[in-house]
Amino acid sequence: MPAPFLESERLWYRCPEPADAPEITGYLLDPRVRRNLAIGRFPFSEAGEAKWIEAQAKPPLFDGATDITLCVGIRGETRILGGTGLHKINWLHRHAQWGVYIGRPDQWGKGYGREVARAMLRYAFATLNLNRVMLRVNADNTGGIKAYEAAGFVREGVLRQAMFVDGRYVDNLVMAVLREQWRDTQ
Ligand SMILES: CC(C)(COP(=O)(O)OP(=O)(O)OC[C@H]1O[C@@H](n2cnc3c(N)ncnc32)[C@H](O)[C@@H]1OP(=O)(O)O)[C@@H](O)C(=O)NCCC(=O)NCCS
Asked: Distance between CA 148 and CA 105 in Å, rounded?
């Protein structure tokens, strides 16, 4: 396994490789995992996922990148647990949109979601010098909201009926952490 890029208490984080595509595709095709993910609406294949991973690959120094994508695993295991990313990075206003999935539902509720959130906030604020990290979450994604609040995200507003899930419209919550607020918790 390539050396991890980041580590947190129980988890490692590294760039996805095209060879990871079958494992990741398996996770993202699970209806329980993709229900609350924007990518879950259309069919996709291992070949498509491998192409997307290749398109994400960047040389080690890159100016103006808008996306940083990582896969996550449990320390001591080579198997992937899920993925996370900072997206729509804006280097002028210093904000980004954060996303996460834990691809193995039997591992939900063990605190991994909030551990990933904390690690990515640390990376965003202490390494990338961002000032604001936001996310959008379906209002009925109770587990996700609990995990994000535990990591310090606060609710900023509601986008009413912004998502169509399982035959009905669902509100989207906007949540965010500011660096000044994050510093207070360190
Ligand atoms: C959302 C997600 C990342 C949370 O990860 P996680 O590892 O379960 O998060 P945590 O264990 O840190 O926290 C989850 C909390 O919700 C609770 N929980 C877990 N599943 C739940 C459910 N189905 N309903 C209600 N609460 C739930 C857990 O008990 C825990 O609460 P606690 O603080 O009282 O113990 C994970 O469930 C996931 O990947 N889901 C599918 C994809 C997804 O929804 N991604 C996020 C899109 S915004």
From this structure: 17
- Taking CA atoms only, the protein residue closest to ligand 1 atom 28 is 109
- 173 pLDDT higher than 80: yes
8 A C-beta contact, residue 138 and residue 36 = yes
Instruction: Kindly compute the dihedral angle of the four CA atoms of residues 93, 94, 97, 101, in this order, to the nearest 10 degrees.
Output: 180
Query: How far is the centre of ligand 1, averaged over its atoms, from the C-alpha of 8 (Å)?
Result: 18
The residue nearest atom 21 of ligand 1, judged by CA position, is 143
Mean per-residue pLDDT for 146-167? 97
If one counts every other C-beta atom within 10 angstroms of the C-beta of residue 72, the result is 25
Instruction: Kindly report the backbone phi and psi dihedral angles of residue 56, in degrees, each rounded to the nearest multiple of 5, phi listed first.
Output: -75, -25
CATH class, 6-184 region: alpha beta
Read off the pTM: 0.96
Q: SS3 for 186?
A: coil
Q: Which DSSP state fits 93?
A: T
